[in-house]
Design a protein that fits this description.
globular; about 425 residues; alpha+beta; 10 strands; Butyryl-CoA Dehydrogenase, subunit A, domain 2; Butyryl-CoA Dehydrogenase, subunit A, domain 3; binds flavin-adenine dinucleotide; Butyryl-Coa Dehydrogenase, subunit A, domain 1
Length: about 425
Protein backbone atom coordinates (compact mmCIF):
# COMPACT_ATOMS: atom_id res chain seq x y z
CA UNK A 1 0.00 0.00 0.00
CA UNK A 2 1.32 3.36 -0.93
CA UNK A 3 -0.34 6.42 0.56
CA UNK A 4 2.05 8.89 -1.04
CA UNK A 5 -0.24 11.60 -2.36
CA UNK A 6 0.10 12.55 -5.99
CA UNK A 7 1.33 16.00 -6.89
CA UNK A 8 -2.21 16.96 -7.87
CA UNK A 9 -3.56 15.91 -4.47
CA UNK A 10 -0.81 17.76 -2.66
CA UNK A 11 -1.63 20.87 -4.65
CA UNK A 12 -5.28 20.54 -3.67
CA UNK A 13 -4.36 20.11 0.01
CA UNK A 14 -2.43 23.40 -0.19
CA UNK A 15 -5.30 25.12 -1.97
CA UNK A 16 -7.79 24.01 0.69
CA UNK A 17 -5.39 25.08 3.47
CA UNK A 18 -4.89 28.50 1.88
CA UNK A 19 -8.61 28.93 1.36
CA UNK A 20 -9.37 28.02 4.96
CA UNK A 21 -6.60 30.25 6.30
CA UNK A 22 -7.77 33.21 4.20
CA UNK A 23 -11.54 32.90 4.38
CA UNK A 24 -12.66 30.51 7.12
CA UNK A 25 -10.39 30.52 10.18
CA UNK A 26 -10.71 34.34 10.54
CA UNK A 27 -14.49 33.76 10.92
CA UNK A 28 -14.20 30.94 13.45
CA UNK A 29 -15.15 33.08 16.44
CA UNK A 30 -17.88 34.94 14.54
CA UNK A 31 -19.39 31.62 13.49
CA UNK A 32 -19.34 30.23 17.03
CA UNK A 33 -20.88 33.42 18.49
CA UNK A 34 -23.59 33.40 15.82
CA UNK A 35 -24.37 29.72 16.40
CA UNK A 36 -24.74 30.32 20.14
CA UNK A 37 -27.07 33.27 19.76
CA UNK A 38 -29.08 32.34 16.62
CA UNK A 39 -29.49 28.57 16.67
CA UNK A 40 -31.95 28.50 13.76
CA UNK A 41 -30.42 31.12 11.46
CA UNK A 42 -28.06 30.68 8.52
CA UNK A 43 -24.61 32.18 9.09
CA UNK A 44 -24.80 35.45 7.12
CA UNK A 45 -21.45 34.90 5.38
CA UNK A 46 -22.19 31.29 4.38
CA UNK A 47 -23.57 31.84 0.88
CA UNK A 48 -20.73 34.24 0.00
CA UNK A 49 -18.16 31.72 1.21
CA UNK A 50 -19.78 29.00 -0.89
CA UNK A 51 -19.58 31.20 -3.98
CA UNK A 52 -15.85 31.75 -3.32
CA UNK A 53 -15.23 28.02 -2.84
CA UNK A 54 -17.06 27.23 -6.06
CA UNK A 55 -15.06 29.85 -7.95
CA UNK A 56 -11.83 28.34 -6.56
CA UNK A 57 -12.83 24.89 -7.87
CA UNK A 58 -13.23 23.56 -4.32
CA UNK A 59 -16.73 22.22 -4.79
CA UNK A 60 -18.32 18.74 -4.52
CA UNK A 61 -14.86 17.27 -4.03
CA UNK A 62 -16.33 14.17 -2.35
CA UNK A 63 -18.06 12.73 -5.44
CA UNK A 64 -15.90 9.91 -6.77
CA UNK A 65 -17.38 10.08 -10.25
CA UNK A 66 -16.78 12.84 -12.68
CA UNK A 67 -19.89 14.98 -12.80
CA UNK A 68 -18.64 17.41 -15.42
CA UNK A 69 -18.93 20.95 -14.13
CA UNK A 70 -20.24 19.68 -10.81
CA UNK A 71 -17.23 17.76 -9.48
CA UNK A 72 -13.58 17.01 -10.29
CA UNK A 73 -14.09 13.24 -9.85
CA UNK A 74 -11.57 12.48 -7.11
CA UNK A 75 -11.04 8.98 -5.75
CA UNK A 76 -11.77 8.31 -2.07
CA UNK A 77 -8.02 8.25 -1.41
CA UNK A 78 -7.56 11.60 -3.14
CA UNK A 79 -10.45 13.17 -1.27
CA UNK A 80 -9.49 11.79 2.19
CA UNK A 81 -6.75 14.34 3.02
CA UNK A 82 -9.03 17.17 1.88
CA UNK A 83 -11.75 15.99 4.28
CA UNK A 84 -9.07 15.91 6.98
CA UNK A 85 -8.34 19.61 6.37
CA UNK A 86 -12.05 20.52 6.33
CA UNK A 87 -12.59 18.70 9.64
CA UNK A 88 -10.46 21.24 11.49
CA UNK A 89 -13.49 23.58 11.41
CA UNK A 90 -16.69 21.70 12.14
CA UNK A 91 -18.66 23.84 9.65
CA UNK A 92 -16.13 24.01 6.81
CA UNK A 93 -17.37 21.07 4.77
CA UNK A 94 -20.65 22.89 4.11
CA UNK A 95 -18.70 25.72 2.47
CA UNK A 96 -17.30 23.21 -0.05
CA UNK A 97 -20.68 21.45 -0.47
CA UNK A 98 -19.10 18.43 1.15
CA UNK A 99 -21.15 18.23 4.35
CA UNK A 100 -23.17 15.33 5.75
CA UNK A 101 -25.90 14.28 5.28
CA UNK A 102 -25.97 16.00 1.87
CA UNK A 103 -22.97 14.06 0.60
CA UNK A 104 -24.57 10.68 1.33
CA UNK A 105 -27.87 11.80 -0.16
CA UNK A 106 -26.17 13.12 -3.29
CA UNK A 107 -24.33 9.82 -3.66
CA UNK A 108 -27.62 7.94 -3.39
CA UNK A 109 -29.25 10.10 -6.05
CA UNK A 110 -26.18 10.00 -8.29
CA UNK A 111 -25.88 6.21 -8.05
CA UNK A 112 -29.48 5.07 -7.83
CA UNK A 113 -31.75 8.02 -8.75
CA UNK A 114 -33.79 8.11 -11.96
CA UNK A 115 -32.96 10.86 -14.48
CA UNK A 116 -36.07 12.76 -13.28
CA UNK A 117 -35.05 12.45 -9.62
CA UNK A 118 -31.55 13.60 -10.51
CA UNK A 119 -32.89 16.63 -12.35
CA UNK A 120 -35.30 17.60 -9.57
CA UNK A 121 -33.13 16.96 -6.47
CA UNK A 122 -29.56 15.98 -7.31
CA UNK A 123 -28.90 19.00 -9.52
CA UNK A 124 -29.92 21.63 -6.93
CA UNK A 125 -28.02 19.69 -4.25
CA UNK A 126 -24.87 19.64 -6.39
CA UNK A 127 -25.32 23.36 -7.03
CA UNK A 128 -25.69 23.96 -3.28
CA UNK A 129 -29.11 25.52 -3.73
CA UNK A 130 -30.95 23.15 -1.39
CA UNK A 131 -30.05 20.99 1.62
CA UNK A 132 -31.31 17.54 2.53
CA UNK A 133 -31.89 15.08 5.37
CA UNK A 134 -31.86 11.30 5.77
CA UNK A 135 -34.81 9.88 7.74
CA UNK A 136 -34.11 6.39 9.02
CA UNK A 137 -34.03 6.27 12.84
CA UNK A 138 -37.32 5.95 14.75
CA UNK A 139 -37.96 6.66 18.43
CA UNK A 140 -40.15 3.62 19.10
CA UNK A 141 -37.77 0.90 17.82
CA UNK A 142 -34.09 0.01 18.25
CA UNK A 143 -32.98 1.48 14.95
CA UNK A 144 -29.39 0.27 15.09
CA UNK A 145 -30.96 -2.87 13.63
CA UNK A 146 -32.51 -1.27 10.56
CA UNK A 147 -34.76 -4.27 10.03
CA UNK A 148 -36.82 -2.88 12.93
CA UNK A 149 -37.77 0.30 11.07
CA UNK A 150 -41.58 0.46 10.98
CA UNK A 151 -42.64 3.48 8.93
CA UNK A 152 -45.05 2.23 6.29
CA UNK A 153 -44.92 3.11 2.61
CA UNK A 154 -48.05 1.86 0.88
CA UNK A 155 -48.75 2.09 -2.84
CA UNK A 156 -52.12 3.62 -3.76
CA UNK A 157 -52.54 4.19 -7.50
CA UNK A 158 -49.86 6.62 -8.72
CA UNK A 159 -48.83 7.54 -5.20
CA UNK A 160 -47.23 6.15 -2.06
CA UNK A 161 -48.79 6.92 1.31
CA UNK A 162 -46.35 7.24 4.21
CA UNK A 163 -47.08 6.92 7.93
CA UNK A 164 -44.54 6.87 10.74
CA UNK A 165 -42.35 8.82 13.12
CA UNK A 166 -38.65 9.59 12.69
CA UNK A 167 -36.10 11.28 14.89
CA UNK A 168 -32.50 12.40 14.83
CA UNK A 169 -33.02 13.55 11.25
CA UNK A 170 -29.95 15.76 10.93
CA UNK A 171 -30.37 19.03 9.08
CA UNK A 172 -34.12 18.44 8.57
CA UNK A 173 -34.89 21.89 10.02
CA UNK A 174 -32.48 23.82 7.80
CA UNK A 175 -34.22 26.82 6.23
CA UNK A 176 -32.99 25.67 2.79
CA UNK A 177 -33.94 22.00 3.15
CA UNK A 178 -35.52 20.76 -0.09
CA UNK A 179 -35.49 16.97 0.10
CA UNK A 180 -35.85 14.18 2.65
CA UNK A 181 -34.74 10.64 1.79
CA UNK A 182 -36.78 8.26 3.95
CA UNK A 183 -36.35 4.56 4.72
CA UNK A 184 -39.55 2.61 5.40
CA UNK A 185 -41.36 -0.65 4.76
CA UNK A 186 -43.13 -1.37 1.48
CA UNK A 187 -43.44 -5.11 2.20
CA UNK A 188 -43.70 -5.80 5.96
CA UNK A 189 -44.28 -9.51 5.35
CA UNK A 190 -41.48 -10.03 2.84
CA UNK A 191 -38.00 -11.49 3.50
CA UNK A 192 -36.26 -9.36 6.21
CA UNK A 193 -33.77 -7.74 3.83
CA UNK A 194 -36.34 -6.92 1.15
CA UNK A 195 -38.99 -5.23 3.27
CA UNK A 196 -37.50 -1.73 3.20
CA UNK A 197 -37.41 0.90 0.47
CA UNK A 198 -36.16 4.46 0.11
CA UNK A 199 -38.36 7.26 -1.06
CA UNK A 200 -37.99 11.00 -1.54
CA UNK A 201 -40.31 13.14 0.57
CA UNK A 202 -40.60 16.88 -0.03
CA UNK A 203 -40.27 18.54 3.40
CA UNK A 204 -43.31 20.73 2.74
CA UNK A 205 -45.60 17.80 1.77
CA UNK A 206 -48.96 17.77 3.54
CA UNK A 207 -48.84 15.53 6.64
CA UNK A 208 -45.15 16.19 7.43
CA UNK A 209 -44.88 17.75 10.92
CA UNK A 210 -41.57 18.80 12.39
CA UNK A 211 -42.31 18.02 16.00
CA UNK A 212 -39.16 19.37 17.67
CA UNK A 213 -35.44 19.94 17.42
CA UNK A 214 -33.35 17.52 19.54
CA UNK A 215 -30.41 19.10 21.34
CA UNK A 216 -27.04 17.33 21.64
CA UNK A 217 -25.44 17.85 25.08
CA UNK A 218 -28.13 20.51 25.60
CA UNK A 219 -27.24 22.46 22.45
CA UNK A 220 -29.26 22.74 19.27
CA UNK A 221 -27.02 21.97 16.36
CA UNK A 222 -26.86 24.94 14.14
CA UNK A 223 -28.50 25.60 11.70
CA UNK A 224 -30.30 22.44 10.50
CA UNK A 225 -30.69 20.74 13.88
CA UNK A 226 -31.69 17.13 14.43
CA UNK A 227 -35.45 16.82 14.07
CA UNK A 228 -38.20 14.60 15.31
CA UNK A 229 -40.70 14.32 12.46
CA UNK A 230 -44.18 12.90 12.24
CA UNK A 231 -45.47 11.64 8.88
CA UNK A 232 -49.24 11.23 8.74
CA UNK A 233 -50.85 10.08 5.50
CA UNK A 234 -48.15 11.82 3.50
CA UNK A 235 -48.75 11.30 -0.22
CA UNK A 236 -45.88 11.45 -2.69
CA UNK A 237 -45.80 10.50 -6.39
CA UNK A 238 -44.85 6.85 -7.03
CA UNK A 239 -41.90 8.13 -9.10
CA UNK A 240 -40.29 9.34 -5.87
CA UNK A 241 -39.37 5.75 -4.93
CA UNK A 242 -35.62 5.21 -5.43
CA UNK A 243 -34.46 2.20 -7.46
CA UNK A 244 -37.49 0.01 -6.68
CA UNK A 245 -39.45 -1.59 -3.87
CA UNK A 246 -37.40 -3.67 -1.43
CA UNK A 247 -34.06 -2.13 -2.47
CA UNK A 248 -33.65 0.07 0.65
CA UNK A 249 -30.86 -1.94 2.29
CA UNK A 250 -28.94 -2.25 -0.94
CA UNK A 251 -28.99 1.55 -1.28
CA UNK A 252 -28.07 2.03 2.39
CA UNK A 253 -24.95 -0.11 1.92
CA UNK A 254 -23.83 1.99 -1.04
CA UNK A 255 -24.55 5.20 0.87
CA UNK A 256 -22.62 4.60 4.02
CA UNK A 257 -19.17 3.42 2.89
CA UNK A 258 -17.61 6.61 1.53
CA UNK A 259 -19.55 8.70 4.09
CA UNK A 260 -17.74 6.92 6.89
CA UNK A 261 -14.37 7.70 5.29
CA UNK A 262 -15.38 11.39 5.17
CA UNK A 263 -16.49 11.45 8.82
CA UNK A 264 -13.35 9.64 9.98
CA UNK A 265 -10.96 11.87 8.04
CA UNK A 266 -12.68 14.97 9.41
CA UNK A 267 -12.30 13.52 12.91
CA UNK A 268 -8.60 13.00 12.24
CA UNK A 269 -8.35 16.68 11.24
CA UNK A 270 -9.98 17.63 14.56
CA UNK A 271 -7.60 15.39 16.51
CA UNK A 272 -4.57 16.81 14.69
CA UNK A 273 -5.55 20.37 15.52
CA UNK A 274 -6.20 19.32 19.12
CA UNK A 275 -2.71 17.83 19.34
CA UNK A 276 -1.22 21.13 18.12
CA UNK A 277 -3.23 23.02 20.73
CA UNK A 278 -1.96 20.67 23.44
CA UNK A 279 1.68 20.96 22.42
CA UNK A 280 1.53 24.77 22.42
CA UNK A 281 -0.35 25.04 25.69
CA UNK A 282 2.09 22.93 27.70
CA UNK A 283 4.97 25.18 26.63
CA UNK A 284 3.09 28.26 27.87
CA UNK A 285 2.16 27.14 31.42
CA UNK A 286 4.14 26.37 34.55
CA UNK A 287 3.23 24.63 37.80
CA UNK A 288 5.41 23.94 40.83
CA UNK A 289 8.29 25.78 39.20
CA UNK A 290 8.37 23.63 36.07
CA UNK A 291 6.93 23.88 32.60
CA UNK A 292 3.93 21.59 32.02
CA UNK A 293 5.84 20.29 29.01
CA UNK A 294 8.45 18.75 31.30
CA UNK A 295 6.06 16.42 33.15
CA UNK A 296 6.16 12.81 32.12
CA UNK A 297 2.39 12.31 32.34
CA UNK A 298 1.86 15.25 29.98
CA UNK A 299 4.38 13.92 27.48
CA UNK A 300 2.75 10.51 27.63
CA UNK A 301 -0.65 12.05 26.89
CA UNK A 302 0.81 13.87 23.90
CA UNK A 303 2.80 10.88 22.64
CA UNK A 304 -0.14 8.49 23.01
CA UNK A 305 -2.41 10.93 21.18
CA UNK A 306 0.04 11.22 18.28
CA UNK A 307 0.23 7.41 18.00
CA UNK A 308 -3.54 7.02 18.03
CA UNK A 309 -4.06 9.74 15.42
CA UNK A 310 -1.54 8.17 13.06
CA UNK A 311 -3.01 4.69 13.56
CA UNK A 312 -6.50 6.00 12.76
CA UNK A 313 -5.22 7.91 9.72
CA UNK A 314 -3.46 4.92 8.19
CA UNK A 315 -6.46 2.68 8.82
CA UNK A 316 -8.80 5.20 7.21
CA UNK A 317 -6.55 5.70 4.19
CA UNK A 318 -6.38 1.94 3.82
CA UNK A 319 -10.20 1.76 3.82
CA UNK A 320 -10.37 4.58 1.24
CA UNK A 321 -7.82 2.86 -0.98
CA UNK A 322 -9.66 -0.47 -0.73
CA UNK A 323 -12.99 1.13 -1.70
CA UNK A 324 -11.29 2.69 -4.73
CA UNK A 325 -9.57 -0.51 -5.84
CA UNK A 326 -12.01 -3.24 -4.83
CA UNK A 327 -15.37 -1.60 -4.12
CA UNK A 328 -17.42 -1.02 -0.99
CA UNK A 329 -18.27 -4.69 -0.41
CA UNK A 330 -14.63 -5.74 -0.24
CA UNK A 331 -13.85 -2.78 2.04
CA UNK A 332 -16.68 -3.59 4.45
CA UNK A 333 -14.48 -4.80 7.30
CA UNK A 334 -12.06 -1.88 7.06
CA UNK A 335 -15.00 0.53 7.00
CA UNK A 336 -16.31 -1.03 10.24
CA UNK A 337 -12.83 -0.78 11.75
CA UNK A 338 -12.46 2.94 11.08
CA UNK A 339 -15.97 3.63 12.35
CA UNK A 340 -15.03 1.86 15.60
CA UNK A 341 -11.60 3.50 15.90
CA UNK A 342 -11.80 7.14 14.75
CA UNK A 343 -14.69 8.57 16.84
CA UNK A 344 -13.35 6.93 20.02
CA UNK A 345 -9.84 8.17 19.19
CA UNK A 346 -11.08 11.77 18.96
CA UNK A 347 -12.96 11.47 22.24
CA UNK A 348 -9.81 10.17 23.95
CA UNK A 349 -7.44 12.74 22.42
CA UNK A 350 -9.79 15.65 23.12
CA UNK A 351 -10.44 14.44 26.66
CA UNK A 352 -6.68 14.50 27.34
CA UNK A 353 -6.49 17.99 25.83
CA UNK A 354 -9.35 19.21 28.03
CA UNK A 355 -7.46 18.00 31.10
CA UNK A 356 -4.24 19.65 29.96
CA UNK A 357 -6.04 22.93 29.23
CA UNK A 358 -7.69 23.01 32.65
CA UNK A 359 -10.70 25.35 32.81
CA UNK A 360 -10.06 26.76 29.35
CA UNK A 361 -10.68 23.32 27.87
CA UNK A 362 -14.34 23.55 28.91
CA UNK A 363 -14.93 26.96 27.28
CA UNK A 364 -15.92 27.84 23.74
CA UNK A 365 -12.70 29.85 23.32
CA UNK A 366 -11.13 26.81 21.68
CA UNK A 367 -13.06 24.13 19.77
CA UNK A 368 -12.45 21.21 22.14
CA UNK A 369 -16.06 20.94 23.31
CA UNK A 370 -17.26 21.00 19.68
CA UNK A 371 -14.76 18.30 18.70
CA UNK A 372 -15.65 16.12 21.67
CA UNK A 373 -19.36 16.44 20.84
CA UNK A 374 -18.73 15.44 17.22
CA UNK A 375 -16.62 12.42 18.20
CA UNK A 376 -19.12 11.33 20.82
CA UNK A 377 -22.17 11.61 18.58
CA UNK A 378 -20.38 9.66 15.86
CA UNK A 379 -19.98 6.76 18.28
CA UNK A 380 -23.77 6.45 17.75
CA UNK A 381 -24.72 8.02 14.43
CA UNK A 382 -24.10 5.87 11.32
CA UNK A 383 -24.27 2.83 13.60
CA UNK A 384 -23.15 2.46 17.24
CA UNK A 385 -19.66 1.09 17.98
CA UNK A 386 -21.10 -2.16 19.30
CA UNK A 387 -23.04 -2.89 16.12
CA UNK A 388 -19.90 -2.48 14.01
CA UNK A 389 -17.97 -4.71 16.40
CA UNK A 390 -20.76 -7.27 16.40
CA UNK A 391 -20.70 -7.47 12.60
CA UNK A 392 -16.93 -7.28 12.25
CA UNK A 393 -16.41 -9.96 14.91
CA UNK A 394 -18.99 -12.17 13.22
CA UNK A 395 -17.28 -11.84 9.83
CA UNK A 396 -13.81 -12.48 11.19
CA UNK A 397 -14.97 -15.60 13.00
CA UNK A 398 -16.87 -16.80 9.94
CA UNK A 399 -13.95 -16.26 7.58
CA UNK A 400 -11.51 -18.00 9.89
CA UNK A 401 -12.98 -21.31 8.68
CA UNK A 402 -11.69 -20.74 5.17
CA UNK A 403 -8.18 -19.40 5.91
CA UNK A 404 -5.33 -21.63 6.90
CA UNK A 405 -4.13 -20.51 10.35
CA UNK A 406 -0.58 -20.61 9.07
CA UNK A 407 -1.30 -18.31 6.15
CA UNK A 408 -1.45 -15.14 8.16
CA UNK A 409 1.58 -15.64 10.35
CA UNK A 410 3.98 -18.50 9.65
CA UNK A 411 3.94 -18.48 5.85
CA UNK A 412 5.25 -14.93 5.86
CA UNK A 413 8.29 -15.76 7.99
C1 LIG B 1 -26.40 13.61 16.71
C2 LIG B 1 -27.01 12.46 15.99
C3 LIG B 1 -27.28 12.59 14.64
C4 LIG B 1 -27.95 11.56 13.96
N1 LIG B 1 -28.30 11.73 12.65
C5 LIG B 1 -29.12 10.83 12.05
C6 LIG B 1 -29.67 11.07 10.76
O1 LIG B 1 -29.36 12.10 10.10
N2 LIG B 1 -30.56 10.19 10.26
C7 LIG B 1 -30.92 9.06 10.94
O2 LIG B 1 -31.74 8.30 10.44
N3 LIG B 1 -30.39 8.79 12.16
C8 LIG B 1 -29.52 9.65 12.74
N4 LIG B 1 -29.02 9.41 14.00
C9 LIG B 1 -29.48 8.23 14.73
C10 LIG B 1 -28.44 7.15 14.92
O3 LIG B 1 -28.06 6.60 13.68
C11 LIG B 1 -29.04 6.13 15.88
O4 LIG B 1 -29.17 6.75 17.15
C12 LIG B 1 -28.22 4.87 15.97
O5 LIG B 1 -28.28 4.14 14.78
C13 LIG B 1 -28.70 3.96 17.12
O6 LIG B 1 -30.06 3.68 17.02
P1 LIG B 1 -30.98 3.90 18.32
O7 LIG B 1 -30.79 5.29 18.79
O8 LIG B 1 -32.37 3.47 17.99
O9 LIG B 1 -30.34 2.97 19.44
P2 LIG B 1 -30.69 1.43 19.72
O10 LIG B 1 -30.84 0.70 18.43
O11 LIG B 1 -31.80 1.41 20.70
O12 LIG B 1 -29.34 0.94 20.39
C14 LIG B 1 -28.96 1.40 21.70
C15 LIG B 1 -27.65 0.82 22.08
O13 LIG B 1 -27.73 -0.60 22.15
C16 LIG B 1 -26.44 -1.13 22.00
N5 LIG B 1 -26.45 -2.20 20.99
C17 LIG B 1 -27.20 -2.30 19.87
N6 LIG B 1 -26.89 -3.44 19.18
C18 LIG B 1 -25.92 -4.05 19.90
C19 LIG B 1 -25.17 -5.23 19.72
N7 LIG B 1 -25.32 -6.00 18.62
N8 LIG B 1 -24.25 -5.56 20.66
C20 LIG B 1 -24.06 -4.79 21.76
N9 LIG B 1 -24.74 -3.64 21.97
C21 LIG B 1 -25.64 -3.28 21.06
C22 LIG B 1 -25.51 0.00 21.54
O14 LIG B 1 -24.76 0.49 22.61
C23 LIG B 1 -26.50 1.08 21.10
O15 LIG B 1 -25.98 2.39 21.20
C24 LIG B 1 -28.30 10.38 14.66
C25 LIG B 1 -27.97 10.25 16.02
C26 LIG B 1 -27.33 11.26 16.68
C27 LIG B 1 -27.05 11.10 18.14
Amino acid sequence: MNFQFTEKTQERIHTIRDFMDTHLFPLEKAYRDFALTSPTGVFPQMEGLKAKAKAAGLWNLFLPEDYGDFSPGLTNLEYAPLAQEMGKLTWASEVFNCGAPDTGNMEVLAKYGSPEQQEQWLKPLLEGKIRSAFLMTEPQVASSDARNIETSIVRQGDEYVINGRKWWSSQALHPHVGCYILLGKTDPDGPPHAQQSMIIVPPDAEGVTRVRSLPVFSEHHFPGGHAEIELKDVRVPANNLILGEGRGFEIAQGRLGPGRIHHCMRLIGMAERTLKYMCRRVKERETFGKSLSSYSSIRQDIARSACEIEQARLLTLSAADTIDKKGIKEAKELISMIKIVAPKMVCDVVDRAMQIFGGKGMTNDIPLVEYYTTGRLLRLADGPDEVHMYQLGRNLIKNSNTDSIRTQYLDEV
